[in-house]
Amino acid sequence: MKLLHLPDFTNNIDNEKCAKFIMSKILTNRADDYAQWYNDIVLKSGLADYSAVRGCMVIKPHGYALWENMRDVLDKMFKDTGHQNAYFPLLIPKSFLSKEAAHVEGFAKECAVVTHYRLKNDPNGGGVIVDPEAKLEEELIIRPTSETIIWSTYKNWVQSYRDLPLLINQWANVMRWEMRTRLFLRTAEFLWQEGHTAHATKQEAVEETERMLEVYATFAEEYMAMPVIRGVKTANERFAGAEDTYCIEALMQDGKALQAGTSHFLGQNFAKAFDVKFSDKENKLDYVWATSWGVSTRLVGALVMAHSDDEGLVLPPRLAPLQVVIVPIYNKDEEARKRINDKLLALVKELKAKGIRVKLDDDDNNRPGWKFAEYELKGMPVRIALGARDLENNVAEVARRDTKEKVQLSLDGLAENIEKLLADIQSNMYQCALKYRDEHITKVDTWDEFVKVLEEKGGFISAHWDGTPETEEKIKQSTKATIRCIPLNNVQEEGKCILTGNPSKERVLFAIAY
């Protein structure tokens, strides 16, 4: 165990410095090792922990509360656009995955397979073993995604155009047997939502795909304070079984891109695979048109990497489990303690009446400075401190997490000012992330420029590509950069492919990605 040699911090004022000194020793600096900094943040701020199952994680209460806030906002946005929640089985018959060739090809290497249904005691005393006589007639796949099990069900739900559109969402866990894992960003099991819709026409399905992409983009920008680029994936990067994949792409503080959400136009592929037909208004039979769309707990990782700093998490107020934490500063005067408590309890009531998530931390087990450092590590947007002298002066110390600025605010009208401050923090976090993103979109016209920017600056690189999968793959193999998307707002621009020199009519965005 490594011992910390602490400076002599003895008084109340320096107690916070002492706590911050210790916090600085448990977090790696971003500039030194970004990957380790990320892991330190996730673990030390209490978002998640490693589990006994390889590649899987334990989401701790602080992390799960963050996910719950994300889930609740998204769930309302889905319902506001006409969708309903349902639940489908975790286990999928293996034969289902064989019905859509591109789909099975895309997921075959990631599938976990259930082959037996019973254990028994080892007669040799080795604990429990798989009972060889309990082999399943057909193996079951732990869902990597649910298109197949859902479309086998939709066959029974859809007969007529009157049954359409079918707008279903599922909140669930999935399993993809990842070999290289990282907490939240890529784990074998993760939580997500997956929407699966059926429509009478191609146009309706495409509109649904685009609508849900915009839902995700709105959520990322207005709640996560994370700017995103809306775009379409190339054929190489498309979801297995889709005709088109729409995506939102975000940029992390290390200059790498992260796919933050996808919405897929599936055409009639799954309807044909599972024979899902409907009678139209002319009583003619046709296959339905499909979409699927999803985001996952990967968004928690995106939130960490988009905003946090060397002192810990920085959480946008609209999603933070706690938006305001109040720390009383007591002395030995019991009467002063009571006055402080009375004032703070009234403030808590005012803040809660405004829908603000607030905690009064009057626990005497830790000193105020330690609480300050802990809440900074956990990313609480606003911290309020009130002592006897503050109360006499009718002010409180208010600290904002995003800029670390501390100000003295009057106790009169404090709840209203905190409400405004939270909105300002949310806006400032978005603007800071937007500024960083925009400064890291670089146009290049030659291969040498492309490689130089990729190595020295990172971020998104706007460049011409000749449109062939072969060129796309060569660039990926040579630099590890992939085409993140073809932006939806692209303008036509004649140019030459950075690698082959062949004609190109538009730029695409490249980046190294998570």
What does this structure look like?
The protein is α+β, with helices and mostly antiparallel strands and 514 residues long. The radius of gyration is 27 Å and the shape is globular. The chain has 15 helices and 27 strands. The strands form seven sheets. It has an eleven-stranded mixed beta sheet. A five-stranded mixed beta sheet has the order 18-17-19-20-21, sandwiched between helices. It has a three-stranded antiparallel beta sheet with strand order 4-8-5. Strand 22, helix 14 and strand 23 form a beta-alpha-beta unit.
How are the SSEs placed, and which strands pair?
Blueprint: H1 12-26, H2 34-44, E1 48-50, E2 57-59, H3 61-80, E3 84-85, E4 91-93, H4 94-97, H5 101-107, E5 112-116, E6 119-121, E7 128-130, E8 135-142, H6 147-157, E9 166-175, E10 189-199, H7 202-222, E11 229-232, E12 244-251, E13 257-267, H8 269-273, E14 277-279, E15 285-287, E16 289-296, H9 298-307, E17 324-329, H10 334-353, E18 358-360, H11 368-377, E19 382-387, H12 388-392, E20 395-400, E21 406-410, H13 414-439, E22 441-443, H14 447-456, E23 460-464, H15 469-479, E24 482-487, E25 495-496, E26 503-504, E27 507-511
Parallel strand pairs: 3-9, 17-18, 17-19, 22-23
Antiparallel strand pairs: 1-2, 4-8, 5-8, 6-7, 9-10, 10-16, 11-12, 11-24, 12-13, 13-16, 14-15, 19-20, 20-21, 23-27, 24-27, 25-26
Helix pairs in contact: 1-11, 3-7
